[in-house]
Amino acid sequence: MSGGPESPLLVEQFPPLSEHEALVEANRCVYCFDAPCTHACPTHIDIPAFIKKIATVNLSGSARTILESNLMGATCARVCPVQELCEGACVLNSEHKPIMIGRLQRYAMDYFYANRPNLLAIARETGRRIAVIGAGPAGLSCAGELTRRGHAVTVFEKRDLSGGLSTYGIITLREPVPVALAEAEMIAGMGVKIVQGMEAGSNPTPAELLKQFDAVFVAVGLGTSPSLGIPGEELVIDGLNYIETSKLSPACLPRANTVVVIGAGNTAVDCATIARRNGAPRVTMVYRRTEREMTAYDHEYRFVKNEGVVFEFLTQPVARTPGTLECVRTELADPDTSGRPAPRTVSGSNFMLPADVVIKAIGQEKPSIAALFGLETERGFIKVDSSMRTKVPRIYAGGDCVRAKGAASTVMAAQDGKIAAAAIHAEVTHG
């Protein structure tokens, strides 16, 4: 089943809207003045305007409206938590279904990528050169916005493919790889130079970057999952590596009857979903706190339960051996630094969970690049001001690597890139 043309691992959750469906849905919109949905969108897309243009069959105009606010519009149409943002704010929520804003945005962006009309104007060259480290959503957004303003931008990406988590870390159910790569190709087509296989910070060094470029934007995301610190951890799979395999080499995923996923965030939910759709009859998510403290969105929690995933709350792994995961029960004590009740183990409560495969999805390591650039950090994240400036002159940062507070998301990363681009533009042109 894995990797076949009909594999559930390779199928998007929602099919594209037909023309009839899109027109019917667009005409449900009441086109609010000072629309709550636009305020709820971190990139402030004029949602009523792009939907009205779909209703009048002006798909180029609709796509232009989206891209003028969010160059990552195709990705965000698929992966944004719309239930928590634009659709959650829709005025039709109280009595009707909210407008399917995400799917209508995808409809317009699918048209754009199928037809590639020339929608975005590029300003005259300024002679200023900007380096962007990382070709994920924050880096690509910043690079595209700076290029639109006439600056020469070089993006350094250490991996073979652009797109960051959009390419490697968001399951195909939500975003196929070609969507992320098409966005990167669009940004390159605007005139951005993307250099693959170079890890800026070590090659080139911070000193070299600051000598060669007028400003630097750091958008490196985060690293792999931190260590569990338990015996047998070498037998535990990193969650992001598991998702990457499901996208790029699905036939290489381990087949299993019992899978245990450690963690209860959105990445853990994605890993559990993959395991179920890869044929595992029993998938268990283990979390040391309760349902109330989960960091996964409520709609993701409901979704994965509907997939048949079961949960073991107040449970902490203590050892991994072939075929099993030894766990211990926990209870909640006073809040820790995260503001959530701290779990503490219950003596003598050890038990075994059957586990052919164990996957950890317990967050990500903080960016090590901060030390290379001498950047100030907050809880391990790069510290920036409201314009995404760091304390080091001419260095800016954005995306997951700065998200010390609030939920990390693609749309927030795209907005970080926009904010940084505006600030960099002001600095390099006006001083």
Give your account of this protein's structure.
- The chain is α/β, with parallel strands linked by helices.
- It has three domains: 15-115, Orthogonal Bundle (Fumarate Reductase Iron-sulfur Protein, Chain B, domain 2), CATH 1.10.1060; 129-223 and 365-430, 3-Layer(bba) Sandwich (FAD/NAD(P)-binding domain); 233-360, FAD/NAD(P)-binding domain (3-Layer(bba) Sandwich).
- 35% of the residues lie in helices and 18% in strands.
- The protein contains 16 helices and 16 strands.
- The strands form four sheets. Strands 3-2-1-4-16 form a five-stranded parallel beta sheet, sandwiched between helices.
- Helix 1 crosses helix 3, helix 3 crosses helix 7 (101-115) and helix 8 (137-148) runs parallel beside helix 10 (177-189).
- It is globular, with a radius of gyration of 22 Å.
- 47% of the residues are buried.
Summarize the structure.
This protein is an alpha/beta fold and 431 residues long. It folds into 3 domains: 15-115, Alpha-helical ferredoxin (Fumarate Reductase Iron-sulfur Protein, Chain B, domain 2, Orthogonal Bundle), CATH 1.10.1060; 129-223 and 365-430, FAD/NAD(P)-binding domain (3-Layer(bba) Sandwich); 233-360, FAD/NAD(P)-binding domain, CATH 3.50.50.60.
Structural class: alpha/beta
- What's the overall average pLDDT, rounded? 95
CATH class of the largest domain: Alpha Beta
Number of helices: 16
* Terminal Cα span: 58 Å
Q: Estimate the global geometry from the Cα principal axes.
A: globular
Name given to the CATH homologous superfamily of the largest domain: FAD/NAD(P)-binding domain
CATH topology annotation of the largest domain:
FAD/NAD(P)-binding domain
User: Total domains, how many?
Assistant: 3
Please give the share of residues in helix.
25-40%
CATH architecture of the largest domain: 3-Layer(bba) Sandwich
Which sequence of strands runs across the widest sheet?
Answer: 3-2-1-4-16
